[in-house]
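Here comes just one.
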Amino acid sequence: MGVATKASGWRARIAVLGAVAVVTGCGGVDQPAPPRLTPAEEQAAKGPVFAYRTDAELAVVHGAETVRAPGSFGYSSAAVSFTRDGQYAFAVETSSKTLVALGVRDRSVTRIPCDCSDAVALRGSVVGWWREPGQIMSMDLGGTEPAGPEREIVLPDSPSPLTGGAWDGAKLVAATDEFVLLARVESRGLWWEKSHLYAIGVDAILPLGRVPGIDAGLSAAAGPDGHTFVLAGATARSATCGSGNVATIDAATNSVLALPTLPGECSAAYSPRWSTDSSITIATRKWADFAGAPSTVDRLQSAAQGWAPVGEYPVVDMLPRAQESMIEVVAGEPTDARGTPHGVLVVRKGDAREELAQQVVSLGSPTATSR
């Protein structure tokens, strides 16, 4: 099992080791070797790096190579995450609450019993998660030490009062160099849930409270400025129907901007992604409120007049274009409203189309800012 080196505070010291090579020509004259490729250049030469997940497998694709790790990921629709340095992909098993990580370059498989439902990339190859009653745990996937507590946390009272529920755990949902975003869940059991947000900075813990319309199933992604996040979630109207909502929040000022309402009688929004080009996309499902109603799925992009499909046909997930390749999970038949959407993983480059896997739930890449 892989182990890690913890760093103090939020940032680790980074050591860059260089090497100089000399080759001897046939005339005996020493000549400089060709420039040594950086890890990023080596990866680019092999082709785009991305990861995908099914109910039972996490896989990293790097050009023609694929590394796989079995896992019990169950019903989760969460996107696959990458460490900040792009060297490891990871996801959390829903049943065992174990973090599963795959190495892009060293092809390592690491399993970490975290007793968590979510984990985030903190810095470098360090991942973090929440442990009750009040610890941020961390582990360096490229290091040699086991996971350990990085910071003790006492959460202040939420500015949004409890509304008849009780506290039912917390989770880390996104992170930047400035803040770690935490969602503390208020619950009455069954489907009723409210999420209270906290922005944990180096010097202060900022209680942000609830965001209107984003109560249950909250997921988040960091924006490019380091202190703004995009949130996705739902407000439940009953055990079978709710409305999906999306908003952005500035953790430094607690200013919230609600994005347009999703279409559909019943809907869900999840797996937001805020790309480097400032575009926001979300995975969505919508269905009618009657027993056995099928749901339709697509990934939508924020547009001037609301939301627009990211592609010409419905997809379960799609990554930003990388090296002229389009990587997408094409939606299959409509599923039950409570089911997890699956599809066929397709890579397109020019006129070429290659199917890589079936029953794929979600994607991730080092260049896609997601949780």
Notes: Residues 1-28 have pLDDT under 50 and may be disordered.
